[in-house]
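User: Just a sanity check before I run the rest of the batch. Below are the structure tokens for the first item. I only need the designed sequence back.
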């Protein structure tokens, strides 16, 4: 019997999403004769039953296109804004899954999507996910699609900033995406030859960073490139955040938990201009003119790299194979040149941090890159 599958993209847009949609769709249609529909705007489209049929013509020409033809949103099935109020739309999602006679639901997304997919799995839906994010922080996979493209963009930006930093004898601070993890900033910093790389996993001491820059000046190099993950914290900020997180974890009642949450929010809101303040601090401590460049959403846009197209297509094709084999409640992860079906229970709620013994950390230190510690 014909199998019917639905696809949606959730969370932030990422290069390679269309390649993954195409990989799932063309394999499902051509290899297994499945019927495929795509839900618009993530879980909201599934809750509202807004979809389009994905056939050969709709999948043609999208391999090289950035973004997602389906649209995306950060809506959660159990906390969706409807009429100005948050509502649990899980039952509506289950009903639409059944109404469309789906045999499987494919969710393309990052860490939040894995958690939401697991919730739907626990409601009885046949769910399978693919890992996407430029942050490369999804647990259980070697790499996520979107990362390679963003890495190329961030590296090129650092390359271009070298000339102006050198010409004007400046410190150029480059803010790179990465709220919780430093994979992108670390890799781009090494590839772009940044002199300092600051990531969330390693709280930094601004005076040590300034001293490293002064050392460069003393050796005749009157400019420096500082690559900063947006979530990088000073040692003082990291200690305050850790204390607040521990207070939240140890909270014995709702009141204590709310106080801890407010403290966490206060620390985060106080960091809105964190990278700009860091640039000012370095200017004060070193006497060198400092300039800030924030790459922002540039890193998420544009044509996906060849590596991301290959990865997304490979994972998408494998996804169709797993659906045909009846393997659900899993994420299709990249393992070397192969794929692996990792249970969502092992993925949801976990984050892949940069380990301190990782080769990238060792490489950065070996070539003299200052990591703020």
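Assistant: Here's the designed sequence for the first item:
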């Amino acid at each position: 019997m014909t199998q019917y599958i639905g696809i949606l993209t959730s969370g932030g847009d990422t290069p390679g999403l269309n390649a993954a949609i195409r990989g799932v769709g063309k394999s499902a249609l051509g290899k297994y004769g499945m019927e495929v529909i795509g839900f618009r705007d993530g879980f909201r489209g599934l809750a509202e039953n807004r979809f389009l049929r994905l056939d050969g013509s709709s999948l043609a020409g999208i391999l090289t296109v950035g973004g997602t033809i389906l649209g995306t949103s950060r809506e959660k099935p159990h906390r969706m804004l409807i009429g100005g109020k948050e509502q649990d739309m899980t039952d509506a999602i289950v009903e639409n899954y059944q109404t469309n006679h789906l045999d499987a639901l494919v969710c393309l997304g990052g860490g939040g999507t894995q958690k939401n997919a697991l919730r739907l799995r626990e409601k009885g839906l046949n769910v399978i996910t693919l890992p996407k994010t430029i942050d490369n922080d999804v647990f259980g996979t070697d790499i996520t699609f979107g990362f390679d493209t963003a890495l190329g963009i961030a590296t090129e930006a650092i390359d271009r900033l070298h000339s102006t930093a050198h010409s004007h004898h400046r410190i150029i601070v480059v803010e790179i995406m990465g709220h919780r993890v430093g994979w992108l900033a670390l890799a781009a910093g090494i590839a772009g030859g940044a002199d300092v790389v600051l990531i969330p996993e390693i709280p930094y001491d601004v005076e040590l960073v300034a001293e490293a820059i002064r050392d460069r000046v003393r050796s005749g190099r009157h400019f420096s490139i500082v690559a900063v993950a947006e979530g990088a914290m000073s040692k003082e900020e990291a200690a305050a955040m850790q204390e607040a997180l521990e207070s939240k974890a140890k909270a014995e009642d709702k009141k204590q938990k709310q106080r801890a949450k407010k403290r966490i929010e206060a620390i985060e809101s106080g960091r809105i201009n964190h990278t700009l303040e860091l640039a000012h601090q370095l200017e004060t401590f070193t006497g060198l003119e400092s300039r800030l460049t924030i790459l922002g959403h540039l890193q998420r846009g544009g044509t996906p790299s060849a590596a991301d197209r290959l990865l997304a297509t490979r994972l998408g094709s494998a996804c169709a194979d797993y659906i045909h084999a009846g393997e659900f409640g899993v994420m299709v992860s990249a393992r070397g040149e192969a794929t692996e079906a990792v249970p969502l229970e092992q993925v949801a709620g976990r984050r892949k941090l940069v380990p301190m013994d990782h080769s990238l950390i060792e490489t950065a230190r070996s070539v003299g890159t200052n990591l703020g510690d």
